[in-house]
Design a protein that fits this description.
Elements (H helix, E strand, L loop, with lengths): L1 H5 L3 E5 L19 E5 L8 E2 H4 L7 E5 L8 E2 L9 E4 L5 E5 L12 E4 L5 E5 L12 E2 L6 E2 L5 E2 L5 H10 L7
Parallel strand pairs: 1-2, 2-4, 3-5, 4-7, 6-8, 7-9, 8-10
Antiparallel strand pairs: 11-12
Amino acid sequence: MESTFQNLEILKVLNCQNLTNLLPSRPSFQHLKELQISGCRKLVNLVTSTTAKSLVQLVKMRVDRCSGMTEVVVAAATTASEVDNIIFSKLKSLTLEKLESLASFCLGNCTFKFSSLEYLRVIDCPKMKIFSRGELSTPRVKVRYGRGVGEWRWDSDLNTTIQQLHEQKVRIVF
């Protein structure tokens, strides 16, 4: 089964209401370019940090209407001193929408590098106070919030921006 996952370029999982575990913890997705998960209300997280490291070709990720999801990437590191370094070098578009339980993209000790990320949208994620607890590198992303044209905002880094918009209870659209 792992060899099947290695060749996937697009993976869409839609309206699997009772799905609790999307992927085995160690498959490689070295060719995956697009990942969309929608309407999986019992799914708590999307991938482990080990699996996330294999998403080297990923260009677009969308997660929406998964009411039970608390984090997108769950850290595989077992001790506080271990850090998982995850590089999404080709990811250009990330959408997190209508995730009522989402607290963070990752609550564990992970460093994320989003060198190509241009479009980040976080819509109707009322519990999301920070993007990630670990270090973040987002050199190209611009932050837009509000419907329609919206307004541009950047408060020193992505975590600070999300914290301030959350405190102001602004409907966030990046």
